[in-house]
Amino acid sequence: MTQTPDTTMTPAELITRFTDLLGPVGVLTGEGDTAAYCTDWRDLYHGRALAVLRPASTGELAALVRLCAEHGVPMVPQGGNTSMVGGATPDDSGREVVVCLSRMNRVRGIDPHDLTMEVEAGVTLKAAQDAAKEAGFMLPLSISSEGSAQIGGVLATNAGGNNTLRYGNARELVLGLEAVMPDGDVFHGLRRLRKDNTGYALRQLLIGSEGTLGFITTAILQLHPQPKAIEAVLCAVEDATAALNLLGLLRGRDPALVQAFEFMSGLGMDLVTSLIPGTSLPLGERAPAYVLVELATPRPDADLREYTEEILGEALEDGIITDAVIAESEGQRAGLWKLREEHAEAQRQAGASVKNDVSVPVTHVPELIERATAACTALIPGIRPAPFGHMGDGNIHFNLVQPKGMAPEAFLARSHDIMDAVAGIVKELDGSFSAEHGVGQLKPYMMPQWRGGAELAAMRHIKAALDPQNIMNPGKVLPPATQGT
Ligand code: 2HG
Ligand code: ZN
Question: Which PANTHER family does the UniProt entry name for this protein (predicted)?
Answer without folding.
Answer: BLL6224 PROTEIN, D-2-HYDROXYGLUTARATE DEHYDROGENASE, MITOCHONDRIAL
